[in-house]
Design goal:
The protein contains 15 helices and 22 strands. It has 473 residues and is of the alpha/beta class. The protein has 2 domains: 257 residues, 3-Layer(aba) Sandwich (Aldehyde Dehydrogenase, Chain A, domain 1), CATH 3.40.605; 179 residues, 3-Layer(aba) Sandwich (Aldehyde Dehydrogenase, Chain A, domain 2), CATH 3.40.309. A 7-stranded mixed beta sheet has the order 14-15-16-13-12-18-19, sandwiched between helices. Helix 6 links the parallel strand 8 and strand 9. Helix 2 packs antiparallel against helix 4 and helix 3 packs across helix 4. The longest helix has 20 residues. The N and C termini lie far apart (83 Å). It binds nicotinamide-adenine-dinucleotide (NAD). The site of nicotinamide-adenine-dinucleotide has 29 residues, from helix 7 and helix 8.
Length: 473
């Protein structure tokens, strides 16, 4: 029997005002129906979150953290069910989906161990100034389709532990794992603390302009992020924007080409390249360029591109039809400007499959180099000297992540220091840890998530400044 999914509003599992199809990207066929909220249901969700806020904020933090821990534990018990649904709606291979669900558990747990920091700013001469951290109110959490579970957890963990309530709105092409999480929330959290509504890209603006929303926590494209920032202006809402990236991988000349190619390939093609911090441009010294291109092209040809539910698949489909068309267009443009040494085409089968594609001999102004491709295609660029490659890597409106590969770690770290991005990894990639802050520079974001700083973004500094009264005359 086909599984049914419900919205979560005020602790109740409810049908949407209408429904829409959710497509399995490995077949391009619908496999489930998703409830679609209308404006009245969105307003009801915000009202429920608003009504639940005072009691949740007044609940001792140890109890709030214990409830979030209970959610994490229940999710872990249902790991394989969630991983399988994630693969079906998102497309990623089952082992990667399992990793995302475990990462979701780990992220929720990490926040249960953090506490907003209370600081005594002065305590002398009868003057005591204390900075407290108070919750904000209703948080609107808006997530994209590449990591629908973990990117929701990045928001749910800190928001709830800090004492906020939430309306979560997942992306229309990957709503189901969020709705399945709703079953766990309904069981383990007080009504209204989290509400989940689904849309077809039509309720975002209503949510971000809603007068009862105190903060918008958004992960998605830079284009939509700009709209979110503008729409939050009217109510002077707090916003956290985790946006796009165009991360450079810089290979230094003391690494073996085969090893560098293997590392860069993994960083570029995990989740079919649909990661905000995927390697999106690779820069390789000219003396190593031929060897590196040969090695990485071979890795692309060896990848097992298949339905993520099939054992052995290493690269799944692109997540949705729109992204599939966008990536194909970038490849067609790159075919005219450079040399495709592996892949270059969609697979001749149903589903949104693109063969892992490596393009060499492109100029820096090619769209595949300048734009965020967000798919399984990587440009490999040649460089002569370090200062030149640093300048080229930084010549971007984005500044999310980046990786430096080098045997001499001190030298590689020096290069990392000069890359204008929120995070730069040296000799590792995707080392995202919920206890370590994550944030973009330039147009890759505003504010940030994760770590103690990420928890504080769900709070307001509240200064209480007290002195003693002078003795009465
Ligand atoms: P998107 O911007 O199209 O959509 C993201 C979310 O915004 C969806 O839930 C969508 O329904 C919603 N939305 C659409 N219009 C809206 C509006 N006017 N107001 C409010 N919300 C609206 O992004 P996407 O295509 O789903 O995701 C891919 C992008 O996300 C890439 O650019 C990727 O780099 C970025 N991303 C960033 C991070 C990060 O942490 N920095 C992480 C993952 C993905």
């Amino acid at each position: 029997m086909e599984r049914t999914f419900k919205l979560l509003i005020n602790g109740e599992a409810v049908d949407g005002a209408s429904q829409f199809d959710v497509v399995n990207p490995a077949t391009a066929q619908p496999f489930a129906r998703c409830p679609r909220a209308d404006a009245a249901q969105l307003n009801a969700a915000v009202a429920a979150a608003k009504a639940a806020f005072p009691a949740w904020a007044a609940t001792p933090i140890e109890e709030r953290a214990a409830r979030v821990e209970a959610v994490a534990a229940r999710l872990q018990e249902r790991l394989s069910e969630f991983a399988s649904l994630l693969t079906t709606e998102q497309g990623k291979p089952l082992d990667q989906a399992t990793g995302e669900v475990m990462g979701t558990v780990f992220t929720l747990r990490a926040f249960t161990e953090m506490r907003p920091e209370t600081r005594i700013l002065r305590d002398e001469g009868g003057n005591r100034i204390v900075e407290h951290r108070t919750p904000l109110g209703v948080v609107a959490a808006i997530t994209p389709w590449n990591f629908p579970m973990i990117l929701a957890a990045n928001k749910i963990g800190p928001a709830l532990v800090a004492g906020n309530t939430m309306v979560l709105k997942p992306a229309p092409t990957t709503p189901l794992t969020s709705l399945l999480l709703g079953e766990i929330f309904a069981e383990l959290l007080p009504p209204g603390v989290i509400n989940i509504v689904c849309d077809q890209n039509d309720l975002g603006a209503l949510l971000t302009t809603h007068p009862d929303v105190a903060k918008v926590a958004f992960t998605g494209s830079t284009a939509t992020g700009k709209k979110v920032m503008a729409s939050a202006a009217d109510g002077v809402k707090r916003v956290t924007l985790e946006l796009g990236g165009n991360d450079a991988a810089i290979v230094l000349d003391d690494v073996e080409p085969a090893l560098a190619a293997q590392k860069v390939f993994q960083g570029a093609m995990y989740n079919a390249g649909q990661i905000c911090v995927a390697v999106k441009r690779a820069y390789v010294p000219e003396g190593m360029y031929e060897a590196f291109c040969d090695e990485i092209a071979q890795l692309a040809r060896d990848a097992v591109v298949d339905d993520g539910a099939k054992q052995g698949a290493t690269v799944g489909p692109v997540q949705n039809a729109m992204q599939f068309e966008k990536v194909k267009a970038l490849i067609e443009d790159a075919r005219q400007r450079g040399t495709i040494v592996a892949g270059g085409d969609a697979l001749d089968r149903p589903g949104y499959f693109i063969a892992p594609t490596i393009v060499r001999d492109l100029d820096d102004d090619a769209p595949l180099v300048r734009e965020e491709q967000f798919g399984p295609v990587l440009p490999v660029l040649k460089y002569r000297d370090i200062e030149e490659v640093i300048a080229r890597a930084n010549d971007s409106d984005y500044g999310l992540g980046g990786t430096i590969w080098g045997r001499d770690v001190a030298r590689a770290t020096d290069v990392a220091m000069k890359i204008d991005s929120g995070t730069v990894w040296v000799n590792q990639h995707l080392a995202i840890d919920p206890r370590i802050p994550f944030r973009g520079s330039k147009q890759s974001g505003l504010g940030g998530e994760l770590g103690q700083a990420g928890l504080h973004e769900y709070t307001q500094a509240h200064i209480v400044n007290a002195v003693e009264l002078e003795p009465s005359a």
